[in-house]
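Help wanted!
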Amino acid sequence: MKTETLATTPVKAAPPRRTSFYKDHEGLILGGAAVVLVLAAWEAAWQHGRAYSLDAEPMISALFFTGPSAVLGALRETWASGQLPSDLIHSGGNFVVGFTMALAAGVVLGIVIGWFRTVRLLLDPFLNAFYATPRIALVPLIIIMFGIGRLPAIVIVFLSAFFPILINTIVGVKTIDDDLLKAARSFCASHVQIFTTVALPGSVPFILTGVRQGVAHGLIGVVVSEMFVGGEGIGFMIAYSGQTFATERIFLGVAIMAGAGILLTSAAERLQAHFSRWRPER
Amino acid sequence: MNKLDIQNVSKRYWLERESREVPACEGVTLSVADGEFVAIVGPSGCGKTTLLNIVAGLLPYDEGHVRIDGERVEGPGVDRAVVFQHASLLPWRTIAGNVRYGMELHGRFPKPEIEQRTERFIRMVGLQGFERAYPSEISGGMQQRVNLARALASDPKVLLMDEPFAALDAQTREFMQAELLKIWRQARKTVLFITHQINEAVYLADRVVVMSSRPGRIKDVFDIPFARPRALELKRDARFLAIEDRIWKLIEEESESILAGGGSTPAGAPAV
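Answered by r_m:
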Protein backbone atom coordinates (compact mmCIF):
# COMPACT_ATOMS: atom_id res chain seq x y z
CA MET A 1 0.00 0.00 0.00
CA LYS A 2 2.61 2.38 1.10
CA THR A 3 5.01 1.61 -1.75
CA GLU A 4 2.16 2.11 -4.16
CA THR A 5 1.52 5.54 -2.83
CA LEU A 6 5.15 6.37 -3.15
CA ALA A 7 5.30 5.13 -6.69
CA THR A 8 2.26 6.99 -7.87
CA THR A 9 3.04 10.24 -6.17
CA PRO A 10 4.32 12.52 -8.88
CA VAL A 11 7.63 14.11 -8.10
CA LYS A 12 6.99 17.66 -7.18
CA ALA A 13 9.08 20.22 -8.91
CA ALA A 14 10.99 22.41 -6.54
CA PRO A 15 9.05 25.61 -6.05
CA PRO A 16 10.58 28.47 -8.01
CA ARG A 17 12.60 30.80 -5.83
CA ARG A 18 10.30 33.57 -4.83
CA THR A 19 11.81 36.95 -5.28
CA SER A 20 9.88 39.80 -3.86
CA PHE A 21 10.75 43.45 -3.91
CA TYR A 22 10.88 43.35 -0.12
CA LYS A 23 13.31 40.42 0.08
CA ASP A 24 15.66 42.01 -2.41
CA HIS A 25 15.81 45.33 -0.61
CA GLU A 26 15.25 44.26 2.99
CA GLY A 27 18.19 46.20 4.41
CA LEU A 28 17.31 49.38 2.60
CA ILE A 29 13.63 49.23 3.51
CA LEU A 30 14.12 48.45 7.20
CA GLY A 31 17.01 50.88 7.57
CA GLY A 32 15.15 53.62 5.72
CA ALA A 33 12.00 53.07 7.75
CA ALA A 34 13.97 53.31 10.98
CA VAL A 35 15.57 56.58 9.89
CA VAL A 36 12.21 58.08 8.89
CA LEU A 37 10.69 56.95 12.18
CA VAL A 38 13.45 58.48 14.29
CA LEU A 39 13.32 61.75 12.34
CA ALA A 40 9.55 61.88 12.76
CA ALA A 41 9.78 61.22 16.50
CA TRP A 42 12.47 63.85 16.80
CA GLU A 43 10.39 66.39 14.88
CA ALA A 44 7.28 65.62 16.97
CA ALA A 45 9.19 65.98 20.24
CA TRP A 46 10.72 69.21 19.08
CA GLN A 47 7.44 70.73 17.92
CA HIS A 48 5.68 69.64 21.07
CA GLY A 49 8.41 70.84 23.39
CA ARG A 50 8.55 74.20 21.73
CA ALA A 51 4.77 74.74 22.02
CA TYR A 52 4.46 73.53 25.57
CA SER A 53 5.37 76.22 27.99
CA LEU A 54 6.52 76.14 31.56
CA ASP A 55 6.31 79.43 33.42
CA ALA A 56 5.74 81.23 30.12
CA GLU A 57 8.99 79.82 28.75
CA PRO A 58 8.88 77.08 26.09
CA MET A 59 10.00 73.75 27.53
CA ILE A 60 12.63 73.34 24.81
CA SER A 61 14.50 76.43 23.80
CA ALA A 62 15.71 76.83 20.23
CA LEU A 63 18.99 77.96 21.75
CA PHE A 64 19.84 74.51 22.99
CA PHE A 65 18.03 72.11 20.74
CA THR A 66 16.57 71.92 17.31
CA GLY A 67 14.46 69.74 15.04
CA PRO A 68 14.68 68.39 11.50
CA SER A 69 12.41 71.09 10.09
CA ALA A 70 14.58 73.82 11.57
CA VAL A 71 17.72 72.21 10.15
CA LEU A 72 16.05 72.06 6.74
CA GLY A 73 15.16 75.70 7.13
CA ALA A 74 18.77 76.50 7.88
CA LEU A 75 19.80 74.56 4.81
CA ARG A 76 17.43 76.54 2.59
CA GLU A 77 18.48 79.83 4.10
CA THR A 78 22.24 79.32 3.89
CA TRP A 79 21.97 77.84 0.41
CA ALA A 80 19.93 80.77 -0.85
CA SER A 81 22.32 83.32 0.66
CA GLY A 82 25.24 81.60 -1.09
CA GLN A 83 27.02 81.03 2.21
CA LEU A 84 26.63 77.27 2.22
CA PRO A 85 27.78 76.70 -1.39
CA SER A 86 30.90 78.78 -0.78
CA ASP A 87 31.62 76.94 2.49
CA LEU A 88 31.16 73.61 0.74
CA ILE A 89 33.53 74.57 -2.04
CA HIS A 90 36.08 75.82 0.46
CA SER A 91 35.97 72.65 2.59
CA GLY A 92 35.78 70.39 -0.43
CA GLY A 93 38.82 72.11 -1.87
CA ASN A 94 40.78 71.70 1.37
CA PHE A 95 39.89 68.04 1.48
CA VAL A 96 40.62 67.28 -2.17
CA VAL A 97 43.97 69.06 -2.20
CA GLY A 98 45.15 67.68 1.14
CA PHE A 99 43.90 64.18 0.48
CA THR A 100 45.34 63.95 -3.03
CA MET A 101 48.76 64.98 -1.78
CA ALA A 102 48.47 62.47 1.08
CA LEU A 103 47.52 59.73 -1.35
CA ALA A 104 50.39 60.38 -3.72
CA ALA A 105 52.99 60.79 -0.97
CA GLY A 106 51.64 57.95 1.16
CA VAL A 107 51.64 55.38 -1.64
CA VAL A 108 55.04 56.32 -3.09
CA LEU A 109 56.81 56.57 0.27
CA GLY A 110 54.99 53.52 1.60
CA ILE A 111 56.26 51.42 -1.27
CA VAL A 112 59.82 52.65 -0.83
CA ILE A 113 59.78 52.14 2.93
CA GLY A 114 58.10 48.75 2.65
CA TRP A 115 60.52 47.58 -0.01
CA PHE A 116 63.81 48.58 1.56
CA ARG A 117 64.26 46.96 4.92
CA THR A 118 66.98 49.31 6.12
CA VAL A 119 64.91 52.38 5.32
CA ARG A 120 62.04 50.82 7.19
CA LEU A 121 64.08 50.04 10.29
CA LEU A 122 65.49 53.56 10.31
CA LEU A 123 62.10 55.23 10.04
CA ASP A 124 60.05 52.80 12.10
CA PRO A 125 60.26 54.62 15.46
CA PHE A 126 59.23 57.92 13.90
CA LEU A 127 56.38 56.39 11.94
CA ASN A 128 55.05 54.62 15.00
CA ALA A 129 55.23 57.78 17.07
CA PHE A 130 53.53 59.88 14.39
CA TYR A 131 50.86 57.31 13.74
CA ALA A 132 50.05 57.05 17.43
CA THR A 133 49.99 60.83 17.99
CA PRO A 134 46.61 62.43 17.45
CA ARG A 135 47.45 64.80 14.60
CA ILE A 136 45.11 67.34 16.16
CA ALA A 137 47.73 67.87 18.85
CA LEU A 138 49.93 69.40 16.17
CA VAL A 139 47.42 72.07 15.20
CA PRO A 140 48.94 74.89 17.30
CA LEU A 141 52.35 74.08 15.84
CA ILE A 142 50.96 74.11 12.32
CA ILE A 143 49.30 77.46 12.93
CA ILE A 144 52.61 78.87 14.11
CA MET A 145 54.38 77.48 11.06
CA PHE A 146 51.78 78.13 8.37
CA GLY A 147 49.71 80.98 9.78
CA ILE A 148 45.96 80.99 9.36
CA GLY A 149 43.80 80.54 6.31
CA ARG A 150 43.85 77.86 3.70
CA LEU A 151 47.39 76.52 3.86
CA PRO A 152 47.37 75.26 7.47
CA ALA A 153 43.98 73.62 6.86
CA ILE A 154 45.37 71.73 3.88
CA VAL A 155 48.43 70.73 5.88
CA ILE A 156 46.25 69.33 8.64
CA VAL A 157 44.12 67.35 6.17
CA PHE A 158 47.30 66.08 4.56
CA LEU A 159 48.80 64.91 7.85
CA SER A 160 45.52 63.30 8.92
CA ALA A 161 45.13 61.25 5.74
CA PHE A 162 48.81 60.62 5.04
CA PHE A 163 49.68 58.28 7.91
CA PRO A 164 46.92 55.70 7.50
CA ILE A 165 47.72 55.47 3.78
CA LEU A 166 51.45 55.28 4.41
CA ILE A 167 51.27 52.64 7.14
CA ASN A 168 48.90 50.38 5.23
CA THR A 169 50.98 50.62 2.06
CA ILE A 170 54.10 49.66 4.02
CA VAL A 171 52.32 46.63 5.45
CA GLY A 172 51.11 45.65 1.98
CA VAL A 173 54.56 45.76 0.44
CA LYS A 174 56.19 44.12 3.44
CA THR A 175 53.83 41.15 3.51
CA ILE A 176 54.32 40.10 -0.09
CA ASP A 177 54.33 36.33 -0.43
CA ASP A 178 57.89 35.01 -0.62
CA ASP A 179 56.75 32.20 -2.90
CA LEU A 180 55.60 34.73 -5.46
CA LEU A 181 58.91 36.58 -5.31
CA LYS A 182 60.73 33.30 -5.79
CA ALA A 183 58.57 32.35 -8.76
CA ALA A 184 59.16 35.76 -10.34
CA ARG A 185 62.89 35.47 -9.77
CA SER A 186 62.96 31.99 -11.29
CA PHE A 187 61.58 33.53 -14.48
CA CYS A 188 64.44 36.04 -14.47
CA ALA A 189 62.26 38.96 -13.39
CA SER A 190 64.13 42.27 -13.12
CA HIS A 191 63.67 44.49 -10.07
CA VAL A 192 61.29 46.66 -12.04
CA GLN A 193 59.30 43.63 -13.17
CA ILE A 194 59.09 42.27 -9.64
CA PHE A 195 57.88 45.66 -8.53
CA THR A 196 55.20 46.08 -11.20
CA THR A 197 53.97 42.49 -11.35
CA VAL A 198 54.24 41.37 -7.71
CA ALA A 199 54.83 44.18 -5.20
CA LEU A 200 52.41 46.75 -6.56
CA PRO A 201 49.37 44.58 -7.36
CA GLY A 202 49.90 42.66 -4.12
CA SER A 203 49.67 45.84 -2.07
CA VAL A 204 46.65 47.35 -3.79
CA PRO A 205 44.12 45.91 -1.30
CA PHE A 206 46.22 47.29 1.57
CA ILE A 207 46.59 50.67 -0.12
CA LEU A 208 42.82 50.84 -0.49
CA THR A 209 42.32 50.01 3.18
CA GLY A 210 44.63 52.94 3.82
CA VAL A 211 42.57 55.11 1.50
CA ARG A 212 39.40 54.25 3.39
CA GLN A 213 40.95 55.13 6.72
CA GLY A 214 42.59 58.17 5.16
CA VAL A 215 39.22 59.47 3.97
CA ALA A 216 37.79 59.22 7.47
CA HIS A 217 40.80 60.87 9.10
CA GLY A 218 40.95 63.51 6.36
CA LEU A 219 37.38 64.55 7.01
CA ILE A 220 38.16 64.99 10.70
CA GLY A 221 41.13 67.06 9.59
CA VAL A 222 38.88 69.33 7.50
CA VAL A 223 36.51 70.08 10.35
CA VAL A 224 39.15 70.55 13.01
CA SER A 225 41.44 72.70 10.88
CA GLU A 226 38.64 75.03 9.87
CA MET A 227 37.46 75.32 13.43
CA PHE A 228 40.89 76.50 14.45
CA VAL A 229 42.20 78.48 11.54
CA GLY A 230 39.46 79.10 9.03
CA GLY A 231 37.24 82.03 8.29
CA GLU A 232 35.38 79.80 5.91
CA GLY A 233 34.26 76.24 5.39
CA ILE A 234 31.90 73.78 7.05
CA GLY A 235 34.15 73.41 10.10
CA PHE A 236 34.16 77.15 10.55
CA MET A 237 30.40 77.25 10.08
CA ILE A 238 29.98 74.73 12.89
CA ALA A 239 32.32 76.61 15.24
CA TYR A 240 30.82 80.02 14.42
CA SER A 241 27.25 78.77 14.80
CA GLY A 242 28.19 77.40 18.17
CA GLN A 243 29.43 80.77 19.32
CA THR A 244 26.28 82.49 18.06
CA PHE A 245 23.86 79.85 19.41
CA ALA A 246 22.62 79.03 15.90
CA THR A 247 21.93 75.45 16.95
CA GLU A 248 20.19 74.43 13.74
CA ARG A 249 23.26 75.46 11.73
CA ILE A 250 25.50 73.33 13.92
CA PHE A 251 23.26 70.38 13.14
CA LEU A 252 23.32 71.26 9.47
CA GLY A 253 27.13 71.26 9.44
CA VAL A 254 27.32 67.98 11.32
CA ALA A 255 24.79 66.39 8.95
CA ILE A 256 26.76 67.57 5.94
CA MET A 257 30.00 66.09 7.30
CA ALA A 258 28.21 62.84 8.14
CA GLY A 259 26.83 62.67 4.61
CA ALA A 260 30.23 63.35 3.11
CA GLY A 261 31.74 60.66 5.30
CA ILE A 262 29.17 58.06 4.27
CA LEU A 263 29.51 58.96 0.59
CA LEU A 264 33.30 58.91 0.47
CA THR A 265 33.75 55.83 2.63
CA SER A 266 31.28 53.81 0.58
CA ALA A 267 33.02 54.97 -2.61
CA ALA A 268 36.34 53.78 -1.17
CA GLU A 269 34.74 50.48 -0.20
CA ARG A 270 33.44 49.99 -3.70
CA LEU A 271 36.86 50.69 -5.11
CA GLN A 272 38.33 48.16 -2.71
CA ALA A 273 35.78 45.51 -3.66
CA HIS A 274 36.54 46.10 -7.33
CA PHE A 275 40.24 45.53 -6.84
CA SER A 276 39.70 42.50 -4.61
CA ARG A 277 37.70 40.46 -7.10
CA TRP A 278 40.43 37.84 -7.13
CA ARG A 279 40.23 37.25 -3.42
CA PRO A 280 38.38 34.18 -2.20
CA GLU A 281 34.87 34.91 -0.97
CA ARG A 282 34.92 35.79 2.67
CA MET B 1 75.80 15.30 -24.76
CA ASN B 2 74.55 16.02 -21.28
CA LYS B 3 71.96 18.71 -20.94
CA LEU B 4 72.56 19.27 -17.27
CA ASP B 5 75.84 18.67 -15.48
CA ILE B 6 76.10 18.93 -11.72
CA GLN B 7 79.67 18.50 -10.64
CA ASN B 8 80.83 18.13 -7.09
CA VAL B 9 78.37 20.71 -5.79
CA SER B 10 78.39 21.57 -2.10
CA LYS B 11 76.30 24.00 -0.14
CA ARG B 12 76.44 24.93 3.52
CA TYR B 13 73.95 26.94 5.52
CA TRP B 14 74.84 29.14 8.43
CA LEU B 15 72.66 28.33 11.40
CA GLU B 16 72.24 31.64 13.19
CA ARG B 17 70.67 30.12 16.28
CA GLU B 18 73.47 27.68 16.91
CA SER B 19 76.27 29.75 15.37
CA ARG B 20 77.52 26.92 13.24
CA GLU B 21 77.51 25.79 9.66
CA VAL B 22 75.36 22.90 8.51
CA PRO B 23 76.12 21.20 5.25
CA ALA B 24 72.98 20.93 3.10
CA CYS B 25 74.53 18.89 0.34
CA GLU B 26 78.06 17.72 -0.29
CA GLY B 27 79.93 16.65 -3.38
CA VAL B 28 76.86 16.01 -5.48
CA THR B 29 77.68 14.90 -9.01
CA LEU B 30 74.91 14.12 -11.45
CA SER B 31 74.44 14.31 -15.20
CA VAL B 32 71.13 14.43 -16.97
CA ALA B 33 70.93 13.68 -20.69
CA ASP B 34 68.84 15.66 -23.14
CA GLY B 35 65.19 14.64 -22.82
CA GLU B 36 65.87 12.48 -19.80
CA PHE B 37 63.58 12.37 -16.76
CA VAL B 38 65.56 12.09 -13.55
CA ALA B 39 63.95 11.93 -10.13
CA ILE B 40 65.72 12.60 -6.86
CA VAL B 41 64.37 10.95 -3.70
CA GLY B 42 65.61 11.13 -0.17
CA PRO B 43 64.44 11.64 3.38
CA SER B 44 63.17 15.09 4.36
CA GLY B 45 65.97 17.51 4.94
CA CYS B 46 68.42 15.71 2.69
CA GLY B 47 69.05 18.83 0.68
CA LYS B 48 67.18 17.82 -2.44
CA THR B 49 65.24 21.06 -2.60
CA THR B 50 68.48 22.94 -1.96
CA LEU B 51 70.01 21.17 -4.93
CA LEU B 52 67.08 22.07 -7.13
CA ASN B 53 67.23 25.71 -6.06
CA ILE B 54 70.92 25.74 -6.91
CA VAL B 55 70.24 24.37 -10.38
CA ALA B 56 67.44 26.91 -10.76
CA GLY B 57 69.95 29.65 -9.98
CA LEU B 58 67.94 30.81 -6.98
CA LEU B 59 70.62 29.86 -4.48
CA PRO B 60 74.38 30.43 -4.65
CA TYR B 61 76.56 27.40 -3.98
CA ASP B 62 79.90 27.08 -2.28
CA GLU B 63 81.76 24.54 -4.39
CA GLY B 64 81.52 22.75 -7.69
CA HIS B 65 79.85 23.55 -10.98
CA VAL B 66 76.39 23.44 -12.41
CA ARG B 67 76.37 23.56 -16.19
CA ILE B 68 73.56 23.56 -18.70
CA ASP B 69 74.67 22.79 -22.25
CA GLY B 70 78.20 23.35 -20.99
CA GLU B 71 77.44 26.82 -19.67
CA ARG B 72 77.91 27.60 -16.01
CA VAL B 73 74.77 28.52 -14.07
CA GLU B 74 75.17 31.96 -12.49
CA GLY B 75 71.55 32.73 -11.69
CA PRO B 76 68.06 32.15 -13.00
CA GLY B 77 67.92 31.73 -16.76
CA VAL B 78 65.46 31.35 -19.58
CA ASP B 79 66.85 27.86 -20.20
CA ARG B 80 65.24 26.61 -16.98
CA ALA B 81 61.79 26.81 -15.42
CA VAL B 82 60.69 25.71 -11.99
CA VAL B 83 57.44 24.05 -10.99
CA PHE B 84 57.16 24.88 -7.30
CA GLN B 85 55.74 22.81 -4.51
CA HIS B 86 53.29 25.59 -3.75
CA ALA B 87 51.60 26.65 -6.95
CA SER B 88 52.87 30.22 -6.36
CA LEU B 89 50.34 31.72 -8.73
CA LEU B 90 49.68 35.44 -8.74
CA PRO B 91 46.26 35.52 -7.06
CA TRP B 92 45.19 38.69 -8.88
CA ARG B 93 45.86 37.24 -12.29
CA THR B 94 43.52 34.90 -14.11
CA ILE B 95 44.64 31.41 -15.13
CA ALA B 96 45.57 32.68 -18.58
CA GLY B 97 47.38 35.63 -17.02
CA ASN B 98 49.42 33.27 -14.86
CA VAL B 99 50.33 30.95 -17.72
CA ARG B 100 51.44 34.01 -19.65
CA TYR B 101 53.47 35.34 -16.74
CA GLY B 102 56.74 33.49 -17.31
CA MET B 103 56.76 34.39 -21.00
CA GLU B 104 56.02 38.02 -20.19
CA LEU B 105 58.97 38.21 -17.81
CA HIS B 106 61.30 36.56 -20.30
CA GLY B 107 60.22 38.81 -23.12
CA ARG B 108 61.40 36.30 -25.71
CA PHE B 109 58.14 35.81 -27.55
CA PRO B 110 56.22 38.48 -29.46
CA LYS B 111 52.72 39.21 -28.19
CA PRO B 112 50.72 37.13 -30.67
CA GLU B 113 52.92 34.12 -29.97
CA ILE B 114 52.48 34.58 -26.22
CA GLU B 115 48.70 34.45 -26.74
CA GLN B 116 48.99 31.40 -28.92
CA ARG B 117 51.28 29.54 -26.54
CA THR B 118 49.11 30.47 -23.54
CA GLU B 119 46.15 28.88 -25.24
CA ARG B 120 48.16 25.85 -26.31
CA PHE B 121 49.56 25.07 -22.87
CA ILE B 122 46.26 25.68 -21.10
CA ARG B 123 44.84 23.07 -23.45
CA MET B 124 47.79 20.77 -22.84
CA VAL B 125 47.15 20.70 -19.08
CA GLY B 126 43.42 20.33 -19.69
CA LEU B 127 42.24 23.67 -18.32
CA GLN B 128 40.43 25.07 -21.33
CA GLY B 129 37.31 26.89 -20.15
CA PHE B 130 39.07 28.15 -17.01
CA GLU B 131 41.16 30.85 -18.70
CA ARG B 132 39.33 33.66 -16.96
CA ALA B 133 39.04 32.05 -13.52
CA TYR B 134 41.18 33.25 -10.63
CA PRO B 135 43.47 30.83 -8.76
CA SER B 136 41.30 31.02 -5.64
CA GLU B 137 38.41 29.66 -7.69
CA ILE B 138 40.07 26.41 -8.76
CA SER B 139 41.22 23.30 -6.88
CA GLY B 140 44.76 22.56 -5.69
CA GLY B 141 45.28 20.03 -8.47
CA MET B 142 44.20 22.55 -11.08
CA GLN B 143 46.49 25.19 -9.58
CA GLN B 144 49.40 22.79 -9.97
CA ARG B 145 48.48 22.33 -13.61
CA VAL B 146 48.64 26.08 -14.07
CA ASN B 147 52.01 26.05 -12.31
CA LEU B 148 53.18 23.39 -14.79
CA ALA B 149 51.69 25.16 -17.81
CA ARG B 150 53.39 28.41 -16.79
CA ALA B 151 56.76 26.65 -16.66
CA LEU B 152 56.28 24.75 -19.92
CA ALA B 153 54.97 27.78 -21.80
CA SER B 154 58.17 29.69 -21.09
CA ASP B 155 59.90 27.03 -23.23
CA PRO B 156 62.75 25.95 -20.94
CA LYS B 157 65.36 23.39 -21.93
CA VAL B 158 65.31 21.95 -18.43
CA LEU B 159 62.21 21.64 -16.28
CA LEU B 160 62.84 21.62 -12.54
CA MET B 161 60.05 20.21 -10.42
CA ASP B 162 60.14 20.59 -6.65
CA GLU B 163 57.73 18.08 -5.08
CA PRO B 164 54.96 19.52 -7.23
CA PHE B 165 52.34 16.99 -6.14
CA ALA B 166 53.25 16.74 -2.46
CA ALA B 167 50.39 18.95 -1.33
CA LEU B 168 47.73 17.08 -3.31
CA ASP B 169 45.50 14.29 -2.04
CA ALA B 170 46.49 10.74 -3.00
CA GLN B 171 43.97 10.35 -5.81
CA THR B 172 44.69 13.66 -7.44
CA ARG B 173 48.40 12.96 -7.14
CA GLU B 174 48.15 9.65 -9.03
CA PHE B 175 46.12 11.29 -11.72
CA MET B 176 48.55 14.18 -12.02
CA GLN B 177 51.49 11.78 -12.35
CA ALA B 178 49.87 10.08 -15.32
CA GLU B 179 49.01 13.48 -16.80
CA LEU B 180 52.56 14.67 -16.32
CA LEU B 181 53.94 11.72 -18.26
CA LYS B 182 51.50 12.39 -21.07
CA ILE B 183 52.50 16.05 -21.18
CA TRP B 184 56.18 15.20 -20.93
CA ARG B 185 55.87 12.91 -23.96
CA GLN B 186 54.49 15.83 -25.96
CA ALA B 187 56.80 18.51 -24.64
CA ARG B 188 59.98 16.38 -24.53
CA LYS B 189 61.83 18.36 -21.91
CA THR B 190 64.74 17.37 -19.75
CA VAL B 191 63.27 17.00 -16.26
CA LEU B 192 64.77 17.06 -12.81
CA PHE B 193 62.04 15.99 -10.42
CA ILE B 194 62.33 16.17 -6.63
CA THR B 195 60.06 14.03 -4.47
CA HIS B 196 60.01 12.16 -1.20
CA GLN B 197 57.61 9.57 -2.60
CA ILE B 198 59.52 6.58 -3.87
CA ASN B 199 56.79 5.15 -6.05
CA GLU B 200 56.23 8.52 -7.66
CA ALA B 201 59.91 8.66 -8.56
CA VAL B 202 60.01 5.11 -9.95
CA TYR B 203 56.81 5.59 -11.92
CA LEU B 204 57.87 8.84 -13.55
CA ALA B 205 61.61 8.70 -14.08
CA ASP B 206 64.18 7.11 -16.36
CA ARG B 207 66.60 7.18 -13.48
CA VAL B 208 66.04 7.57 -9.76
CA VAL B 209 68.76 9.18 -7.68
CA VAL B 210 68.70 8.39 -3.97
CA MET B 211 70.18 10.98 -1.66
CA SER B 212 71.41 10.40 1.85
CA SER B 213 70.31 12.58 4.71
CA ARG B 214 72.29 15.52 5.93
CA PRO B 215 74.72 16.22 4.48
CA GLY B 216 72.97 15.27 1.27
CA ARG B 217 75.12 13.04 -0.88
CA ILE B 218 74.19 10.79 -3.74
CA LYS B 219 73.83 7.36 -2.30
CA ASP B 220 72.81 5.34 -5.31
CA VAL B 221 71.30 5.66 -8.76
CA PHE B 222 68.69 3.26 -10.14
CA ASP B 223 67.91 2.83 -13.82
CA ILE B 224 64.22 2.32 -14.30
CA PRO B 225 63.78 -0.11 -17.17
CA PHE B 226 60.04 0.15 -17.85
CA ALA B 227 58.95 1.00 -21.37
CA ARG B 228 56.88 4.09 -22.02
CA PRO B 229 54.09 5.00 -22.13
CA ARG B 230 53.58 3.72 -18.61
CA ALA B 231 50.11 2.95 -17.32
CA LEU B 232 49.25 3.60 -13.68
CA GLU B 233 48.81 -0.18 -13.23
CA LEU B 234 52.58 -0.45 -13.52
CA LYS B 235 52.71 0.54 -9.88
CA ARG B 236 51.32 -2.87 -8.98
CA ASP B 237 53.76 -4.78 -11.19
CA ALA B 238 56.11 -7.12 -9.24
CA ARG B 239 59.26 -5.68 -10.87
CA PHE B 240 58.10 -2.17 -10.01
CA LEU B 241 57.49 -3.14 -6.41
CA ALA B 242 60.90 -4.81 -6.25
CA ILE B 243 62.68 -1.61 -7.29
CA GLU B 244 60.54 0.42 -4.94
CA ASP B 245 61.44 -1.97 -2.16
CA ARG B 246 65.19 -1.74 -2.80
CA ILE B 247 65.06 2.06 -2.73
CA TRP B 248 62.90 2.00 0.35
CA LYS B 249 65.42 -0.22 2.18
CA LEU B 250 68.23 2.12 1.24
CA ILE B 251 66.38 5.11 2.67
CA GLU B 252 65.34 3.16 5.72
CA GLU B 253 68.96 2.34 6.47
CA GLU B 254 69.67 6.01 6.20
CA SER B 255 66.92 6.99 8.64
CA GLU B 256 68.03 4.32 11.08
CA SER B 257 71.57 5.57 11.07
CA ILE B 258 70.23 8.99 12.02
CA LEU B 259 68.13 7.60 14.82
CA ALA B 260 71.15 5.66 16.06
CA GLY B 261 73.03 8.93 16.22
CA GLY B 262 75.13 8.20 13.14
CA GLY B 263 74.07 11.32 11.26
CA SER B 264 75.31 14.78 11.93
CA THR B 265 72.05 15.72 13.62
CA PRO B 266 72.88 16.68 17.19
CA ALA B 267 71.47 14.41 19.85
CA GLY B 268 68.20 15.65 21.26
CA ALA B 269 67.45 17.77 18.19
CA PRO B 270 64.49 16.62 16.15
CA ALA B 271 65.54 14.93 12.92
CA VAL B 272 63.94 17.29 10.46
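OP: Thanks! One thing I noticed: The beta strands of chain B are 2-15, 20-33, 37-41, 63-68, 71-72, 80-83, 158-162, 190-194, 207-211, 218-223.
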